[in-house]
């Protein structure tokens, strides 16, 4: 329950496309967040989102970033525009919450980081899965020493069905688009980043994905400086829903998560016993609460004057690792990420 | 997520004791509920609760029930005052949400029901456990025919530790105080109420409870008109937390709930494997969300002009059954409830 | 693994009907048991069983009981002949393993017990479910104090489908035929027998069973001297197989069994997640190993010169309780068993 | 249950060390196997094993292989002697069951295979884990098409504690000694063998293992011709017992195994809920029944005149893959096995 004394933060939501429908309702549901503006260069699009979620529609970035009612911005625009908006917001002195990834290109990311260093504002990268209660409980258990020294980290992440080909083409490839979440989670939990990675991939669901040079099945090994070994497996299709599992094994034991389902019942029938419901269908359902918790972390960090817990440096590390994975997959050798 | 068009309902919270700390935060968290008054004959007590949860403190019932800003009342006072406040609110034409039970005495309940019939207002009895997502999923599955014809209904409800003796003395006994929840849940799920009940009880945890003529272990069989048989077991102590399980078995299969825990992890250690966390500690933690959902049902029913789904008649039925259980326990015979 | 030094016990199997096909293979599989005779007054029937399982066929009881190669008898004849064969074997000084129940009539049982007292031989009643590894683990855990003082004992026992009406008619009723197993298990685990019982029953699967005055759903409460309360539920139909579960709850925690299945896999599919296979179909599959372990207990007891662990007195107690349950079901009052 | 008509096979057990204590009791428990000889060049050692398990002790290989009572041999000698005994048995025309691996050296294996080709006898390699009921159920489910086209195969295999350093030194390294089991299982289930493998390893439990150039943590990716990707993780220490899990994910769903435990109970206590017992401690306990089933497959194959289902070619494939894994681990590149 929220105390009435919670400080209020005025937000500009940059972007009014698909992700605005994810962020809009969470901003409205958070008692400390006010939606002041919805921005889109396409004014009509901004107006449609503002009609749904409140705030004023604007296609004038200077107006938005210059408004004193705007305490911070949430960037939910196409990936290739993230860096430009981050830079503009930083120059305007506005704290930034930005959807992952920062960019698909390390050079552009490094340029962005230089500007953030020169014009420091609180910055949070939207690695929302860290704020999912299941994933979060794993990180806390490991940080509390429940498993002792970490030996293995495993992340399983399987989507119900492949996205449209247009999405694939703009995605930067399976590792940068999707495995980057698993990479960030495991590095965050391990408290270290890999010296080297090896990845393999193949295309078994939609041959058009393979024709683009991408994969729809991916498997990665990350070799950590401590000696710990991490495994990630991803698939673009999964008949039983959106499979999201973590396992961390160490000298003191093991912790695992157990997925989230459409309902909590245990069913016994003519066909099966002790059956659970299908998994929540997609990230929108599965990580719905994590987006809220991520915005809450951003709210707390900004109102308390501290850097948020998922930073631009985490974003660069995860991108560098994902790029190394993709190269490893193509070349068949272990690759050291370009930190 | 709540639409901005949600109608607003002004509430007076009657009572500023223990249960006000349960209702206050939920009222504040609900976007369609406004806390207008906190009432207590003891004005200082009302002021303390109002300071925490908002609304004006009042020790003047006429002021509260006469205020045009008050659209409905929530009664969270001691059990033996429920009927008086219900009657006063009904005479004032205010819709009522009342904590269970209506009263411990069937005659007083019947008097109250006569007044509610003569002065009809939307009335909801706070059988919040119906609105718990787990219990609710069972009811929907059974109503949807998932288990076919119902043969057995089972409710397990075990508290972590016995309440203070003063609480026991005022409680009306274990069946009326506590088993009434299980009775209501099973009748609601079954869609019928028992012809006869048999109960047994004993005292194994706190002999002072036995010295009061009460029990701290209870087991009941309910014989339904359809032929279905229902089982309830309750204990006043449970070392692993607040155990809350339902099982419904029928000609088409079985559904079960699986408890709620302090965290979602699966743990493997030197001692055990695939272990789950301890259960949520008490009803405050376990049924926290159900209170919110119950208030939401009340909000929807009142703003839509329909009777809420848990009625005064459900309350009378459950009380009549609980009284029959207590008599059965004392006399060693099956007893027909006084519907 | 069995040591080569295991002593050999020559058996006469009395009866060559349905249960002989259960006992025959287990006797052959046990390295310490030799099948010397298969007896049936119908010589052709004895010959058929002997052809399958070995031993000599005989329709001459004196020959069988007089043979020096016969160290003990296994009685697997119709229930109403058990007492006669027990008496004959006891008079001949042969140790006896007898299928449950001793008889459906307490007076006949008492006559049999008097003869066993006058002509003492090692005697074991075939309460094979005690020797099932799951049930056995519960008893050991409780005996080892894992759950502290016992508060609740629960036994769920549901058959896949009702037996033929002829079987029902000869069965002595659901309590004596079937619930007697649950009664014996719970009393054995509790280490005490009830002061009083209350039972309810109904007929929802096969109305011809009801027309015989019997039930196909049964629920019993047993009130133990310690204050512990025991619950049994039985049904003659169960769509997901042969459901066999125990739960024992005490001041120190709870232990449960989890059924046995057709295969050990966990399945995730379009319909369900983490689903287990259907339960083993019937007692023949479910308790197959328990029969072997029961014969092994008999073998050990006889060769070590001690009484087997499931005695004629356990059989009489369970029968007295089952008879009390049936009376309670008919009369609607708690009944004290005639110990 | 075994039919009395089961044909009898006389065995010579070569080797009377550690593994003879595994094979001896299973041979005795199998109604179709007779232990005719226990052979060891050290006659005293052979005599000790023969005293325990029966058969005649011999240190004269010619006597053993020339005996007409010996229908087949079981080789349970040190790994570096396997090939010599296989060759001797094949030259003598005796069917062979040989503990895995064939040898640690591919050239020696190829020499052995050439002799087996020239002197064909029924030959079975002791990949006993295929005959474990859990693993076997996975293979059957996949072969029956339950998971559709296979996308991922996962094998987790973790031992409770590292073996002695002497064992490590003679083992051929972690991949050849231990991961070879997982490799064989996954290839057998997949019905294909990898084009390339990548492995990583580290040493976190016993630094003396690392000083030998070996690892105590290993992780492998196998890239299958179909596009399927397989993952194996192994550790030489595991605080909760001997962790053995398989998972196969495909276009139609997923099947998993769930480990085997010291007892079947579900426990609820002050610390945890729904906890299962620790895992069976080591391969001796965990795969006890699989050894019996493997011997039974050998018995059936020989007495039915057909090649056993786990062949010398499976053994060579698994060894070639394990050698490739070890090289990949050292060189940091994906390696194609030398089939």
Topology record:
The structure is a homotetramer of 339-residue chains.
Chain A: E1 9-14, H1 20-29, E2 33-39, H2 43-53, E3 56-58, H3 61-66, E4 72-75, H4 82-91, E5 96-99, H5 106-118, E6 123-126, H6 133-143, E7 150-158, H7 165-170, H8 174-190, E8 196-202, H9 207-211, E9 217-223, E10 229-235, E11 243-250, E12 253-256, E13 266-268, E14 275-276, H10 283-286, H11 288-303, H12 312-331
Parallel strand pairs in A: 1-2, 1-4, 2-3, 4-5, 5-6, 7-10
Antiparallel strand pairs in A: 7-11, 8-9, 9-10, 11-12, 13-14
Helix pairs in contact in A: 1-11, 4-5, 5-12, 6-8, 8-12
Q: Care to give the gist of this entry?
A:
Four copies of one chain form a homotetramer. Chain A has 339 residues and is α/β, with parallel strands linked by helices.
What labels describe this entry?
globular, 14 strands, homotetramer, 339 residues, 6-stranded parallel sheet, 38% helix, 6-stranded mixed sheet, alpha/beta
3D architecture notes:
The structure is a homotetramer of 339-residue chains. Chain A is an alpha/beta fold and 339 residues long. Chain A is globular. In chain A, helix 2 (43-53) links the parallel strand 2 (33-39) and strand 3 (56-58). Chain A contains twelve helices and 14 strands. Chain A has a six-stranded parallel β-sheet, with helices on both faces. Chain A has a six-stranded mixed β-sheet with strand order 8-9-10-7-11-12. A two-stranded antiparallel ribbon of chain A has the order 13-14. The longest helix of chain A has 20 residues, at 312-331. Chain A binds chain D through residues 148-149, 151-152, 154, 158, 196, 198, 200-205, 217, 219, 221, 223, 226-229, 231, 233, 235, 237-240, 249, 251-254, 332-334, and chain D through 148-149, 151-152, 154, 158, 196, 198, 200-205, 217-219, 221, 223, 226-229, 231, 233, 235, 237-240, 249, 251-254, 332-334.
């Amino acid at each position: 329950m929220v105390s009435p004394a919670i400080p209020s933060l005025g937000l500009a939501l940059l972007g009014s496309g698909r992700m605005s429908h994810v962020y809009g309702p969470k901003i409205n549901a958070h008692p400390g967040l006010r939606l002041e503006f919805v921005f889109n260069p396409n004014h009509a699009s901004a107006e449609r989102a503002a009609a749904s979620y409140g705030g004023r529609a604007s296609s004038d970035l200077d107006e938005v970033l210059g408004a004193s009612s705007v305490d911070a911005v949430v960037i939910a625009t196409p990936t290739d525009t993230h860096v430009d908006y981050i830079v503009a917001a930083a120059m305007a002195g506005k704290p930034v919450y930005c959807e992952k990834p920062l960019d698909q290109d390390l050079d552009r990311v490094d340029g962005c980081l230089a500007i953030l260093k020169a014009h420091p504002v609180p910055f949070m990268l939207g690695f929302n899965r860290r704020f999912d209660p299941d994933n979060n409980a794993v990180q806390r258990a490991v940080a509390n020493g429940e498993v002792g020294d970490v030996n293995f980290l495993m992340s399983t992440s399987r989507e119900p069905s492949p996205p449209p080909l247009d999405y694939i083409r703009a995605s930067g490839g399976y590792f940068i688009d999707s495995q980057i979440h698993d990479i960030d989670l495991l590095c965050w939990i391990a408290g270290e980043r890999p010296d080297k990675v090896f990845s393999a991939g193949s295309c078994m669901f939609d041959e058009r994905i393979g024709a683009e040079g991408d994969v729809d099945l991916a498997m990665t090994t990350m070799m950590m400086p401590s000696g710990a070994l991490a495994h990630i497996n991803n698939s673009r299709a999964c008949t039983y829903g959106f499979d999201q599992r973590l396992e961390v094994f160490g000298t003191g034991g093991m912790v695992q998560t157990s997925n989230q389902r459409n309902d909590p019942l245990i069913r016994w029938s003519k066909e099966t016993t002790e059956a659970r419901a299908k998994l929540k269908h997609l990230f929108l359902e599965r990580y719905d609460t994590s987006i809220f918790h991520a915005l809450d972390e951003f709210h707390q960090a900004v109102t308390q004057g501290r850097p948020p817990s998922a930073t631009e440096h985490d974003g660069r590390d995860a991108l560098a690792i994902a790029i190394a994975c993709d190269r490893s997959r193509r070349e068949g050798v272990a690759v050291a990420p370009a930190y």
